[in-house]
């Protein structure tokens, strides 16, 4: 990155979602990466990728969850 943009200054701020939205809104940050699904319409946004995941647990802990076999998962 230093070779492609030697004048670029990059600072990383570990902000919670709400704090990141506020920082974008008041100009303290130029960009935020993360799950900002509740961002106001005044902010421009773009989905970088979509990922799915699986939660596994005991049937007694997840009584409403569908049953999935290993064959169906693979």
Anisotropy-based shape:
elongated
Largest sheet: none
Q: Give the helix tally.
A: 2
Number of strands: 0
Radius of gyration, CA atoms, in whole angstroms: 20 Å
Fraction of residues in H or I helices: 10-25%
The helix/strand class is mainly alpha
Could you report the average pLDDT, rounded to the nearest whole number? 86
Strand content of the residues, in percent? under 5%
Write the H/E string, N to C: HH
Low-confidence stretches: none
How far is the N terminus from the C terminus? 39 Å
Domain LysR substrate-binding: 2-56
Pfam family, one: LysR_substrate
InterPro entries: LysR_subst-bd
Protein name: LysR substrate-binding domain-containing protein
